[in-house]
Amino acid sequence: NIQTPTILQYILGSIQNICYGSRINSIKIVELNFIPLIKRVMQSYLQVPIIQQYIVGTLWNLTIENVNNQRIIAKYNFLPLIKQILILHEQSSSLQLNAFGFLQNFAHNISNVKLTICDEQILNIINLNCCTHHQVNQVQQNADRLIRAFYN
């Protein structure tokens, strides 16, 4: 029943911060079935880069070194949405950084997901967005790690 993106920003930012660096909180967020809600919000606010940045940052935090969360989140197939937002919001370096980090978590651990995300389209998007953000070291580093993870 949330109407304004501002309130939504605070809520999503809080969830992202709660998950950051806390395995227990990350597990709880997934156990409390937040993932379907996160996906619905992601779909509803596709055009709002700050909302997407928080959502993808949350997904990144939820999947850091947590294969069980990765398996659960993989079932919700965020990958088409991730591709869409990488193209829609190619100018947002923070969003690119979060998306590359999120994808990287999967590329390292789940081989069937690795195959799903390692396609020509996503590699072209990563390459294009790296050119856009050639001066943002963190984006370059995450993209580099992601591409290396694809091929390992």
Classify the secondary structure makeup into a structural class.
Answer: mainly alpha
Order of helices and strands: HHHHHHHHHH
In total, the number of strands is: 0
Chain-averaged pLDDT: 83
Regions with little confidence, pLDDT below 50 for 5+ residues: none
Number of helices: 10
Gross geometry:
globular
- Report strand %: under 5%
- Work out the oligomeric state of the chains in this entry: single chain
Measured distance between first and last alpha carbons: 43 Å
Largest sheet: none
User: Percent of residues in helical segments?
Assistant: over 70%
From the alpha carbons, calculate the radius of gyration and give it in angstroms.
14 Å
Task: Give a description of the structure.
The structure is a single chain. The chain has ten helices and no strands. The chain is mainly α and 152 residues long. The radius of gyration is 14 Å and the shape is globular. 35% of the residues are buried.
Question: What's the structural blueprint in terms of helices and strands?
Answer:
Layout: H1 5-19, H2 23-31, H3 35-44, H4 49-63, H5 67-74, H6 79-88, H7 93-109, H8 111-117, H9 120-132, H10 137-151
Helix pairs in contact: 1-4, 4-7, 6-7, 7-8, 7-10, 9-10
